[in-house]
Design brief:
The chain has 202 residues and is mostly helical. Helix content is 72%, strand content 6%. Strand 2 and strand 3 form a beta hairpin.
Length: 202
């Protein structure tokens, strides 16, 4: 028994069968030829051929009730040439992009050479930014005295007071309705609903 073949080796040997004969085959024929001529186990022939079809390296055509498989050397050469042209085009695009980025980096570095003047300016910038952060932190301490914030809080307090008074008025209306409808004493009503004696509008 010969050495165990990898899938890639089986694919190569199957392609050799097609290219050497340059003829179409039925799957049964390949299952018979594969073991004899190329040492491909007959049980794996179907999977090998299907993988070649899936990768576009081998054609499959149904004629009548039978499937025929074939691949010609010229097709492989054309595909390789097309693939090479595609890769060369992609390489040229990448090289152009690389040159463009290199030029952009060069332009960006102009005026940023490490000089004493630049170092002094960067140091001054760092000091200014640190001072700005300190002032922002100091400003936060006085935020509660901000006129805009104070006005906003006043408006929110007014809205809350108005809402509270609306609910208070609703409770007074309910008290009156219960008193008139059920002839209930207000003290009983307030005690039952746990309403304090000093309950009134804000």
């Amino acid at each position: 028994m010969g050495p165990r073949l990898s899938l890639e080796e089986k694919r190569k040997r199957m392609m050799d069968i097609f290219h050497e004969s340059q003829e179409p085959y039925l799957l049964k024929e390949l299952e018979r030829i594969g073991p004899k001529q190329k040492g491909i186990v007959s049980q794996s022939v179907k999977d090998v051929v299907q993988s070649l079809v899936d990768d576009g390296m081998c054609h499959c055509e149904k004629i009548g009730s039978s499937n025929f498989f074939w691949s010609f050397p010229s097709e492989v050469a054309v595909k390789r040439a097309n693939k090479r042209a595609e890769l060369e085009k992609e390489l040229a695009q990448m090289q152009a992009k690389n040159k463009e980025l290199t030029d952009s980096i060069g332009e960006a570095l102009l005026g940023r050479e490490q000089t004493d003047e630049r170092a002094n300016l960067l140091e001054e910038l760092a000091e200014t930014e640190a001072s700005f952060k300190e002032q922002q932190a100091e400003l936060q301490k006085f935020k509660e005295c901000d006129p805009v914030l104070m006005n906003q809080k006043r408006e929110e307090a007014r809205m809350a007071r108005d809402a509270a008074n609306r609910w208070t008025d609703n409770i007074f209306i309910m008290q009156s309705w219960v008193r008139d409808k059920f002839n209930m004493d207000m003290d009983q009503f307030n005690k039952h609903f746990e309403i304090p004696a000093d309950f009134d509008n804000v």
